Amino acid sequence: MPKDKTDNFLKAIKRYAKEQKSAMHGEVKLLKTERLKEAEETAKRESQLLIKEKQREARSRRTAELASKTQEGRRRLFIARSEMVDEVFALAADRLIEYVKTDAYAAMLREGAKAVAELFGNDSCVLYVCERDLGAAEELKSFFSGSVEVKADQAIRIGGVKGFCESRGMIADETLDSRLEAQREWFIEHAALSVQ
After folding, report:
1. 165 φ, ψ to 5°?
2. Would strands 125-129 and 160-165 be described as parallel, antiparallel, or unpaired?
3. Which helix (H) or strand (E) is 173 found in, with range?
């Protein structure tokens, strides 16, 4: 083979190799670009998912904290409301204790005994009073047609009468203590002290 042909053949091979090398570099560059783009898109999707998950966790944590703070606030409000109600009723009880020192209370005590006596009729009963009202026992007995025993009841702190008729299985409560306590629910409902 002549030298020119050999040179031309080698040149053609080199040119072809150079073209192939250039084409391969282009393909590698394109492949690198595609892979990099895919990696960026994957990283972007994963980071968006991670951000959304972290946002959900943060919202959930804030919601739990808010619920806890709300519950604690309600608990404190409930305690404060209970303390205010107790204070109001302690003041009312103090005023009622002052009231039992009046003639109006003595009349109320007699009216309470009359109401219990009417309820029990001729049946025997026990009439309970505050210890300081035991001095009125004979007068209170006079309203009953059946036999009656008057006893002190430590549960009656303010005053009034409470009758118990065993044969009827009934209790008649005309005490200031029970009347005051009955007002507690009404007071809570109407004093705008509700816990929302």
Report:
1. -115, 110
2. antiparallel
3. strand 170-175
Alpha-carbon distance of 9 to 18, in angstroms, equals 14
Q: Which of 70, 63, 162, 71 is nearest to 109 (CA)?
A: 162
Alpha carbons 182 and 86: distance in angstroms, whole number:
13
- At residue 45's C-alpha, the angle toward residues 41 and 48, to 5°, is 135
Give the C-alpha distances (Å, rounded to integers) separating 21 from 10, 25, 34, 128, 175: 16, 6, 19, 116, 111
Q: Which of 137, 158, 132, 157 is nearest to 148 (CA)?
A: 137
For 16-38, write each residue's pLDDT tens digit. Answer: 778 887 778 888 888 888 888 88
Segment 5-17, tens digit of pLDDT: 777 777 777 887 7
Render pLDDT for 36-83 as a digit per residue (tens, 0 to 9). Answer: 888 888 888 888 888 889 889 889 898 888 888 889 888 888 888 888
* Alpha-carbon span 169 to 189, nearest angstrom: 33
What does pTM read for this prediction?
A: 0.61
Q: Give the model's pLDDT for residue 119.
A: 93
The number of C-alpha atoms within 13 Å of 19 and in the hemisphere containing its C-beta is: 6
